[in-house]
């Protein structure tokens, strides 16, 4: 007799036909030394599957096989019997459920097993000489595991404040539990704690990195099931906000747009203040056509009702007008060398600007005789020297514009003394001059004499 095939959704064993063929061959193949044993095929089975208690190396002189449920061979525990020489070899007993089939080789098939089928089964073999052999086999039936699911003792834990316990449900007997995070085994962390049976996972002092997903897997000897992913909604933040863009200086008439962003779960509430005064509730602040009065300290304040935390960031905004042309005022524009001081002042109507001095077309390099006021608006030359003469300019600028004054020329007068004398006295000088005049007169007389002589010598004899 062949065992009935199983429907696919019951996942019954489909290999029993070939197995029974092997067992029947064993039955008809005499063996003297082989040990008489009973083997459960499969060793463990899920509910709804088929199990064969396979008799290995049955004796050749068997008269009748009788199977009993349990260890007692009481008639009430009789399941079925098979007589090798009887006209109707098969017979059933009080313990027969309608799902058991006994084969000529003494093997017993259970179809569509249930948890109640788990236990010990006894086989009595009566031989033709009247001797009995008694063996026991065992069936192990495990429940078909339901799909597990994860429950949490806290639906919205707060970061660094709460601990969370995840439970893998339902609880089933003879089941092992395993947890996975991000589809990987649990990392070795001090904050993760498993119960003795691994069914519950506790995460101490949760952080935003503990969101998961989490999965639990259940296993018994015959099957395994895995839960759907579970995401832990950890409440955190807000973190310190950031204000964009990075620009902080604007000209009058520009549009000011400031955006505040803070990482938070759930999203935080945003408030804007200027110079400590409430402005509006919004994540983005927009002020069109700004003026100088719109400059100041802009504070973005974020708050989370879920965590009770608040954070702030301050950004200073400056609104500056375009600078106008400055002028230079001098305490003196013409001065004698080694006199002083001379004070040059750069005059401007603006505040909060920078001032730079230019001399001979280059940024002025201060000497040890020059000092600048704290705001660079005044240049003082203590003792004036001739190299200080020249053209001076002052330049004023802010982040949006710059302007340069008209040139101012500083004149430095200085005196060069006459060359030093040779050291001769007045009388010596007069003597030299007289000698020179005498020499000139002597030369003129000699020339005259020569001319007369030449004239006289040229007359007739």
Automatic annotation (TrEMBL):
Residues 79-99 are annotated as: Disordered. Pfam families: Ig_2 (PF13895), Ig_3 (PF13927), V-set (PF07686). GO terms for cellular component: cell surface; plasma membrane. InterPro entries: CEA_cell_adhesion, Ig-like_dom, Ig-like_dom_sf, Ig-like_fold, Ig_sub, Ig_sub2, Ig_V-set. SUPFAM superfamilies: Immunoglobulin. One of its GO terms (biological process) is signal transduction. Residues 1-34 form the signal peptide. Residues 146-233, 238-318, 326-411 form the Ig-like domain. The keyword Glycoprotein applies. The gene is LOC101348985. This is Carcinoembryonic antigen-related cell adhesion molecule 1-like isoform X3. The chain crosses the membrane at residues 428-451. Keywords: Glycoprotein, Immunoglobulin domain, Membrane, Signal, Transmembrane, Transmembrane helix. Belongs to the immunoglobulin superfamily. CEA family. GO terms for molecular function: protein tyrosine kinase binding.
């Amino acid at each position: 007799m062949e065992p009935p095939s199983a429907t696919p959704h019951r996942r019954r064993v489909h290999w029993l036909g070939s197995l029974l063929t092997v067992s029947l061959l064993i039955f008809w193949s005499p063996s003297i030394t082989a040990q008489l044993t009973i083997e459960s095929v499969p060793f463990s089975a899920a509910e709804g599957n088929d199990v064969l208690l396979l008799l290995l190396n049955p004796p050749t002189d068997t008269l009748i096989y009788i199977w009993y449920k349990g260890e007692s061979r009481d008639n009430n525990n009789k399941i079925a019997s098979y007589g090798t020489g009887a006209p109707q070899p098969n017979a059933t007993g009080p313990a027969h459920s309608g799902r058991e089939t006994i084969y000529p080789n003494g093997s017993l098939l259970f179809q569509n097993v249930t948890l109640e089928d788990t236990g010990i089964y006894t086989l009595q073999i009566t031989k033709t000489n009247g001797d009995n052999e008694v063996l026991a086999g065992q069936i192990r039936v495990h429940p078909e595991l339901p799909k597990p699911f994860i429950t949490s003792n806290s639906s919205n834990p707060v970061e660094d404040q709460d601990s969370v316990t995840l439970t893998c449900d339902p609880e089933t007997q003879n089941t092992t539990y395993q947890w996975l995070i991000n589809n990987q085994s649990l990392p070795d962390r001090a904050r993760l704690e498993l119960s003795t049976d691994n069914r519950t996972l506790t995460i101490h002092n949760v952080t935003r990195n503990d969101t998961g997903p989490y999965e639990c897997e259940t296993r018994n000897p015959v099957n395994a099931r895995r839960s759907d992913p579970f995401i832990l909604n950890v409440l955190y933040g807000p973190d310190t906000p950031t204000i964009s863009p990075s620009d902080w200086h604007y000209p009058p008439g520009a549009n000011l747009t400031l955006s505040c962003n803070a990482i938070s779960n759930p999203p935080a509430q945003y408030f804007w203040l200027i110079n400590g005064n409430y402005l509006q509730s919004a994540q983005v602040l927009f002020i069109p056509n700004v003026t100088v009065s719109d400059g100041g300290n802009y504070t973005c304040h974020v708050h989370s009702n879920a965590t009770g935390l608040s954070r702030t960031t301050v950004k200073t905004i400056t609104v500056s007008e375009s600078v106008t042309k400055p002028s230079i005022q001098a305490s003196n524009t013409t001065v004698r060398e080694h006199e002083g001081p001379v004070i040059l002042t750069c005059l401007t109507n603006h505040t909060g600007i920078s001032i730079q001095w230019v001399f001979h077309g280059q940024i002025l390099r201060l000497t040890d005789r020059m000092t600048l006021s704290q705001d660079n608006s005044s240049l003082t030359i203590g003792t004036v020297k001739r190299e200080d003469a020249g053209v001076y300019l002052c330049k004023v600028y802010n982040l949006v514009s710059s302007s340069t004054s008209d040139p101012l020329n500083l004149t430095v007068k200085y005196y060069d003394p006459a060359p030093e004398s040779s050291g001769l006295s007045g009388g010596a000088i007069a003597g030299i001059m007289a000698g020179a005049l005498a020499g000139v007169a002597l030369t003129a007389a000699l020339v005259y004499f020569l001319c007369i002589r030449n004239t006289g010598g040229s007359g007739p004899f």
